[in-house]
């Protein structure tokens, strides 16, 4: 019986080491999950910012401005970069419900881009694109 007195101490130390390793692994996993959740939140915030800046650019250029553009226009709103690329020639209207086959009504199309950076040291970049068509005769 006297030979078994040290075995309880030995097994309790092994169990303590195993529980410590499990605790460290869980703490590391939790820390990584928090970083990933933070990165996801930054991406969502960047998308909201890019969409807001895109809406603002479209609102600023509504009306005749889109139809009369001939060169790329660039602006910097909400900490991002926005630019408008007009098409070189007129195209058929894609979303015109009463378009006719004669092609009398044409559209001038412009693509509006909005870009926002996110993440540590702005390592991520998110770009949102919208197409705008305006009828011309």
Summarize this structure as a short list of keywords or feature phrases.
137 residues; alpha+beta
Quickly describe the structure:
This protein is an alpha+beta fold and 137 residues long. It contains two helices and five strands.
What is the general shape? rod-shaped
* Percent in strands: 25-35%
Largest sheet: 5 strands, antiparallel
Task: Identify low-pLDDT runs.
Answer: none
SS content category? alpha+beta
What does this structure look like?
The chain has 137 residues and is α+β, with helices and mostly antiparallel strands. It has two helices and five strands; from the N terminus they run H-H-E-E-E-E-E. It has helices at 5-60, 64-67, and strands spanning 73-75, 81-86, 91-92, 106-118, 124-136. Strands 1, 2, 3, 4 and 5 form a five-stranded antiparallel β-sheet that branches.
Show the helix and strand layout.
Layout (H helix, E strand, L loop, with lengths): L4 H56 L3 H4 L5 E3 L5 E6 L4 E2 L13 E13 L5 E13 L1
Antiparallel strand pairs: 1-2, 2-4, 3-4, 4-5
């Amino acid at each position: 019986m006297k030979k078994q007195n040290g075995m309880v101490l030995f097994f309790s130390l092994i169990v303590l080491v195993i529980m410590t390793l499990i605790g460290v692994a869980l703490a590391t996993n939790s820390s990584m999950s928090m970083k990933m959740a933070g990165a996801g939140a930054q991406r969502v915030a960047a998308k909201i910012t890019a969409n807001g800046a895109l809406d603002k650019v479209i609102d600023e250029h509504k009306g005749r401005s889109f139809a009369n553009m001939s060169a790329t226009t660039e602006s910097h709103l909400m900490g991002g970069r926005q630019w408008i690329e007009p098409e070189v020639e007129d195209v058929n209207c894609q979303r015109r419900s009463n378009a006719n086959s004669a092609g009398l009504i044409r559209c001038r199309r412009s693509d509006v881009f909005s870009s926002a950076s996110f993440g540590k040291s702005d390592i991520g970049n998110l770009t949102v694109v919208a197409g705008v068509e305006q009828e011309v005769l």
